[in-house]
Design brief:
2 domains, 23% strand, 7 strands, alpha+beta, elongated, single chain, 5-stranded antiparallel beta sheet
């Protein structure tokens, strides 16, 4: 193993991803290409001062990475512009209507299943 390390903040995760200290003190990141790299001494010193900061050998973590796309950075307007793809708008869902099986008046859902029709007094409960 090499002498370079990433520091994981083991207090939380993002989905299935580990959080590492980001470059230049810019918070935390799940993208190791944006993670700060530390010497063995720096990593050990930080772990000694805060045990939740776990030093991981850079070589080991680099072998465990995978490509990922963060939904925060993908916009349909930008991602599809000029691609020739036209997205279809999903149809609006048809709202189910509840009618009295005796007189046909429209009823609220809770009245349909739990009460009698206010117009004819008929019961629609199953």
């Amino acid at each position: 193993m090499g002498d370079l390390f990433y520091l994981q903040d083991s207090r939380s995760y993002v989905g299935n991803d580990l959080l590492f200290w980001a470059k230049d003190g810019c918070g935390y990141t799940t993208d190791v290409s944006k993670a700060e790299v530390y010497s063995r001494e720096e990593a050990q010193q930080q772990h000694n001062s805060r045990e939740t900061d776990i030093p991981w050998p850079k070589d080991y973590i680099d072998q465990k990475t995978r490509p990922a796309v963060d939904h925060q950075y993908v916009r349909r307007d930008d991602a599809l512009k000029g691609s020739g793809i036209a997205l279809q708008k999903p149809p609006k869902p048809v709202r189910q209507r509840y009618r009295c099986s005796h007189c046909g008046v429209f009823l609220a859902l809770h009245v349909y299943y739990a009460g009698d029709c206010s117009r004819c007094g008929g019961s629609n409960s199953p």
